[in-house]
Amino acid sequence: MTTGPMHQNKKWLESQYAKTKNIYTMADIAGCHPRTIHKWMAKHNIKMNGMKGRKHTEETKEKISKGVLATNPTGMAGRKHSPETRKNMSLNRKGSMNKNWKGGITAGIRKLRKTKEYVRWRKEVINNAGGTCENCGSDKNIEAHHIISLHKDISKALDINNGMALCIACHKKRHRRERDV
Ligand SMILES: [Zn+2]
Ligand SMILES: [Zn+2]
């Protein structure tokens, strides 16, 4: 009989591999990490069929192709992300979703500007300001401006309190300053 854990035993490895064709299953049986199995398989020169066992899930294949099996450079596998990391990850996701959302909403905004409700909002905002620019007092070329941009909060699109009257010049200036509005 040999001493030491079974996964270090060549005979055990050979027979288990013949049975399971899967070092993950073997790792489960031996109660060790798949890469430990892999290491000992390699040590004993046991052929692993290029790890193409039918039992491999897509995830396993990916792990193998990325070499996670042999090395674990990040040490992340099986470890939970810290709350901080998770928060950052979710922020990143939100950020990229936001970009998509903005891309998709532009067409929606264009449509919105043509609706009766929008035209009414515009008129009301300008009327409330007495038809003059709330910045310079001009009464020429008055437009309705969204204080909170449609891109930032579409739900405030028709909110009278979110509108202000600006002449075309002041309006342009404001948008240049706010850049993304
Ligand atoms: Zn505006
Ligand atoms: Zn003005």
What portion of the residues fall into strands of 2 or more residues? 5-15%
* Proportion of residues in helical segments: 40-55%
Largest sheet: 2 strands, antiparallel
Residue runs with pLDDT of under 50 for 5 or more positions = 68-79, 94-100
Helix segment tally: 7
The SS-based structural class is: mainly alpha
> Helices and strands, in N-to-C order?
HHHHHHEEH
Any idea what the radius of gyration is? 32 Å
Cα distance, first to last residue?
Answer: 77 Å
Anisotropy-based shape:
rod-shaped
Q: What hetero molecules are bound to the protein chains?
A: zinc ion
Overall pLDDT metric: 79
> Strand order of the main beta sheet, please?
1-2
**How many strands appear in the DSSP assignment?**
2
3D architecture notes:
The chain is mainly α and 181 residues long. Among the domains are: 38 residues; 75 residues, no CATH class. The protein contains 7 helices and 2 strands, in the order ααααααββα. It has a two-stranded antiparallel sheet with strand order 1-2. Helix 2 crosses helix 3. The longest helix has 30 residues. It is rod-shaped, with a radius of gyration of 32 Å. About 10% of the residues have low confidence. The structure holds zinc ion (2 copies).
